[in-house]
């Protein structure tokens, strides 16, 4: 545990900014995560990331201790979309977990990236999440950025926090979406009925999802959507679309168990990312091709008539 005592000249700074400047390699995003987990306290009390520190405040930081999981490099095929000395961008296949955890000790994207990058990965994500800047669900496919060094990791985390990274997804949902374009602005938090699920809840955090119709398939009662998100809440797209009556096809968690198409895992693909390169500041736009099963499904519906 780390303890900081605020000096007079340090007062009135936001606590997340203060701690990010105190401890090398600790980003504001990481600080905010620790505050949410109540691992950062001020004078023994929980606070918000926006709290402005005062002279003689005693700040305690319980540093994250990843569960001991032996990390090993594994030769697992992963499509590399872009790579340089700072970042590697990949197209994660559906069914692959991003990083090791209980129940998934190996066979993850991190294991595959370790084999590709060797020792060139940011350590900010912790021992079990080296280089991981953002995540997508196990059964969601698509584009992900991995940081090869701490400087790139901090820069990309700040871009995500400031909504400067534009994420675009493709989803096939059940039902005929009436609106051509719409925005869903509903708070998301942990479900009170099932702690493993997320839900739209009054006490949740703000979550904003924009979507527009790419194509409707009346004969199959489903719609292909392009989706952009302003926030990155857990299961955000899946929860929002289910909430308005258009669950993603194949989503076993948020579609009431209905799966007429026999798809394993949700038809949700992280198609593209737009961001500034963390070192050169060049505007980057990268895309990940739809997986074969998704393309086959779309073609099959078109062949059978829309």
Q: Helix- and strand-based class?
A: alpha+beta
Secondary-structure arrangement, i.e. CATH architecture of the largest domain: 2-Layer Sandwich
Strand content is 25-35%
Number of helices: 6
- Are there runs of 5+ residues with pLDDT below 50, and where? none
Number of strands: 14
Describe the 3D structure:
The chain has 306 residues and is of the alpha+beta class. It folds into three domains: 2-61, Structural Genomics Hypothetical 15.5 Kd Protein In mrcA-pckA Intergenic Region, Chain A, CATH 3.10.290.10; 66-161, Pseudouridine synthase; 167-270 and 295-303, Pseudouridine synthase (2-Layer Sandwich), CATH 3.30.2350.10. The chain is 19% helix and 26% strand. It contains six helices and 14 strands. Strands 4, 5, 6, 7, 8, 11, 12, 13 and 14 form a nine-stranded mixed β-sheet that branches. A three-stranded antiparallel β-sheet has the order 1-3-2. It has a two-stranded antiparallel sheet with strand order 9-10. Helix 1 (15-22) crosses helix 2 (28-36). The mean pLDDT is 87.
Task: Give the gist of this structure.
The chain is of the alpha+beta class.
Descriptive labels:
Structural Genomics Hypothetical 15.5 Kd Protein In mrcA-pckA Intergenic Region, Chain A, Pseudouridine synthase, 3 domains, three-stranded antiparallel beta sheet
